[in-house]
């Protein structure tokens, strides 16, 4: 049973071919846009690669770039096919090409949709990657003399200033880590010795944050040290103070930034997906309508076009059978050999 | 003897008209470019007008915007005339205005040249405006409760972080003013009373800078307070310490930012001038070649084109004579009236 049969008189076929040619050029531009959007996302992710623990999230921009390049090829062939479609002499040479072409096009179009779904699904992975990366960054903040980690301080400072955030979950993460290097601590002074003795690991912990946590919108000069000690500063109460340092955590800030970016890109890619889908549907209608004309004397007759010759299930089986046969081929040969070996034994 | 005489047949005239029309379209785009550069410069000046005491001169960006609009208009008109020049009937209606149009183009090019010169010279007044504005800005840093000045602290902090600078000339400018508001000073403490007593104006001065002066590239946590006291910090020598706070002054930083922008705009305006001169010369050739047809009825006849009908010297003396004649024309009338008056 045929799926979506439509009648196509000659004029309608001509109009379809012309419209499809224009649509395929628009879709080519859209494909280039998808590739560019993938590049933009990848660049933004790479800029903050130091605070990300793994690169799993990069699968989204990589998929977008592959789909963008593929759609350039798909739409180029679509425009070529519809140019030849109205010429009965030149159309038959595309005959053998069209079946694998439609299979590949459907695959890449579905991949486009998958990329958008993945960008939402991978939020959790991005968040955990950032959690571990930021925790390491804060731990290695003081190691400005260790090769491989000497730029952590600079990176974390610039990150906190640009995204207006402090620490991993919030500013108290800095209280649990020694972020002042031992090179700048006077080990002969009483205060330093007290602090180091007061915890198990012998670390110099302070209730203070680096200068990059300071909020410029605060009406008073920034209070970085002795944050929880109200009597250390005049007219200061840390429980109600909101503008002194950034209260937001950097993990939340970065996740919001990247999710916003992927939402915008996802909306664009969805509309490109609809455009690409309509190109493929129109091309299929044009192909089936022109196939009925092949070999006839009068090329201006009315023909029928359809999406699928058989039902959806049958068409899927038709495409999957060669693939399954390839994988099951070896099994069938072995089964045949064993049964033929068994039957002589029984007879 | 005409200046740069060239012989034209029909084919050459058509080619000339087409290429000049093409160049006029580029010139329209160049006019749009000049307009947008003027707009961009105006927006950048407005963004930081607080730091310039709201006193900055918007003369140059306004001039650029005006020049851009005029350029678009002239070049669109010139393109239309060029397009019509291939059709003798259409060209006849433009012919009378063409001479004055070309004179206007020459005057406009001279004005563009003056604009480009201004772009390079505006640096000097900008320097003084910035110095004054930044000094006042730093004075009002602590006034976060005074209406009209409450955002100065935020503006200065963000500017120092963005341009990587500290103070006006350098960080020591912060030592000479009180940048901590009295609301956050405990006047009953001995230290505060000592500092306020130690200077004539009763200001709380200290050898410290705001946090926005801190350099993230420093290997140690930022030292903002007691900067000149080596013993207050372990392993610290303020004479040799270079990475702790930004060493550059904000006046230098802003001046080089705006100076670079103005240099780029000036260079682009010079390129636009060269394009304008080329289209003006092309238009003059089109005009002269179409007005010297050997046989006025036959459009395919040969003609000559030139930049000036006579040599430069002769054209100049012609212009001077014309101006003298205009002046004498007034004098002749006066003489006539005086003669009438004496007679009667």
Automatic annotation (TrEMBL), chain A:
Transmembrane segments: 55-79, 100-121, 265-286
CDD domains per record: peripherin_like_LEL
Domain of life: Eukaryota
Family: Belongs to the PRPH2/ROM1 family.
Membrane protein topology class: Multi-pass membrane protein
Gene Ontology annotations of biological process type: visual perception
Keywords: Membrane, Transmembrane, Transmembrane helix
PANTHER family: PERIPHERIN-2, TETRASPANIN
Protein name: Retinal outer segment membrane protein 1a
Automatic annotation (TrEMBL), chain B:
Main location: membrane
Pfam families in alphabetical order: Tetraspanin
Transmembrane segments: 20-41, 62-81, 101-121, 265-286
Keyword list, A-Z: Cell adhesion, Disulfide bond, Glycoprotein, Membrane, Transmembrane, Transmembrane helix
Organism of this sequence: Amphiprion percula (Orange clownfish)
InterPro entries referenced in this protein's UniProt entry, alphabetically: Peripherin/rom-1, Peripherin/rom-1_CS, Peripherin_LEL, Tetraspanin/Peripherin, Tetraspanin_EC2_sf
GO BP: cell adhesion; visual perception
Membrane association type: Multi-pass membrane protein
GO cellular component, one term: plasma membrane
Subcellular location, record wording: Membrane
Signal peptide (from-to): none
Family statement: Belongs to the PRPH2/ROM1 family.
Name listed for the protein in its UniProt record: Peripherin-2
Superkingdom of the organism of origin: Eukaryota
């Amino acid at each position: 049973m045929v799926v979506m049969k439509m009648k196509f008189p000659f004029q309608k076929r001509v109009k379809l071919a012309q419209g499809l040619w224009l649509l395929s050029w628009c879709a080519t531009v859209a494909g280039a846009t998808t590739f560019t959007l993938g590049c933009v996302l990848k660049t933004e992710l790479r800029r903050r690669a130091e605070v990300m623990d793994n690169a799993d999230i990069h699968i989204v921009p990589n998929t977008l770039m592959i789909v963008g390049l593929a759609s350039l090829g798909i739409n180029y062939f679509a425009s070529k096919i519809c140019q030849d479609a109205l010429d009965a002499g030149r159309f038959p040479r595309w005959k053998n090409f069209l079946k694998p072409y439609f299979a590949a096009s459907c695959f890449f179009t579905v991949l486009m949709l998958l990329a958008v779904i993945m960008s939402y699904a991978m939020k959790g992975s991005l968040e955990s990657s950032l959690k571990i990366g930021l925790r390491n960054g804060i731990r290695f903040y003081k190691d400005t003399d260790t090769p491989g980690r000497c730029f952590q301080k600079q990176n974390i400072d610039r990150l906190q200033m640009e995204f207006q955030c402090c620490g991993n979950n919030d500013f108290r993460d800095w209280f649990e880590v020694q972020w002042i290097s031992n090179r700048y601590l006077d080990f002969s002074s009483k205060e330093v010795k007290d602090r180091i003795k007061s915890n198990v690991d012998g670390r110099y912990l302070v209730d203070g944050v680096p200068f990059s946590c300071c909020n410029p919108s605060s009406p008073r000069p920034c209070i970085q040290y002795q944050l929880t000690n109200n009597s250390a500063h005049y007219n200061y109460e840390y429980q109600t103070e909101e503008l002194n340092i950034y209260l937001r955590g950097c993990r939340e800030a970065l996740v919001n930034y990247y999710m916003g970016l992927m939402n915008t890109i996802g909306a664009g890619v969805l509309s490109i997906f609809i455009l690409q889908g309509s190109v493929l549907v129109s091309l299929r209608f044009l192909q089936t309508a022109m196939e009925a004309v092949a070999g006839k004397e009068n090329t201006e007759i009315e023909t029928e076009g359809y999406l699928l010759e058989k039902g959806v299930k049958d068409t899927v089986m038709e495409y999957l059978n060669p693939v399954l046969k390839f994988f099951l081929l070896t099994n069938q040969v072995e089964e045949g050999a064993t049964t033929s070996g068994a039957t002589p034994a029984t007879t | 003897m005409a200046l740069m005489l060239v012989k034209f047949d029909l084919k050459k005239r058509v080619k000339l008209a087409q290429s000049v029309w093409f160049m006029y379209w580029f010139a329209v785009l160049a006019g749009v470019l000049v307009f947008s550069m003027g707009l961009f410069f105006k927006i950048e000046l407005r963004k930081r007008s607080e730091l310039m005491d709201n006193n900055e001169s918007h003369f140059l960006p306004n001039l650029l915007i005006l020049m851009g609009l005029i350029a678009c208009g002239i070049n669109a008109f010139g393109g239309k005339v060029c397009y019509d020049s291939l059709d003798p009937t259409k060209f006849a209606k433009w012919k009378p205005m063409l001479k004055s149009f070309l004179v206007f183009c020459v005057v406009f090019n001279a004005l563009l040249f003056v604009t480009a010169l201004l772009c390079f010279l505006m640096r000097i007044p900008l320097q003084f405006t910035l110095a004054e504005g930044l000094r006042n800005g730093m004075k009002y840093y602590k006034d976060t409760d005074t209406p009209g000045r409450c955002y100065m602290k935020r503006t200065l902090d963000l500017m120092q972080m963005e341009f990587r600078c500290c103070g006006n000339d350098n960080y020591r400018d912060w030592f000479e003013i009180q940048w901590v508001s009295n609301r956050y000073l405990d006047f009953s403490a001995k230290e505060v009373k000592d500092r306020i007593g130690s200077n004539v104006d009763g200001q709380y001065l200290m050898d410290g800078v705001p946090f926005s002066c801190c350099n993230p590239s420093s290997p140690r946590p930022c030292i903002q307070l007691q900067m000149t006291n080596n013993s207050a910090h372990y392993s610290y020598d303020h004479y040799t310490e270079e990475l702790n706070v930004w060493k550059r002054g904000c006046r230098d930083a802003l001046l080089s930012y705006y100076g670079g922008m103005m240099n780029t705009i000036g260079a682009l305006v010079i390129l636009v001038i060269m394009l304008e001169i080329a289209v003006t010369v092309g238009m003059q050739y089109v005009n002269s070649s179409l007005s010297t047809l050997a046989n006025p009825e036959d459009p395919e006849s040969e003609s000559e084109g030139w930049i000036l009908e006579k040599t430069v010297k002769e054209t100049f003396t012609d212009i001077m004579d014309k101006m003298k004649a205009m002046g004498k024309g007034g004098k002749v009338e006066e003489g006539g009236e005086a003669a009438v008056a004496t007679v009667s």
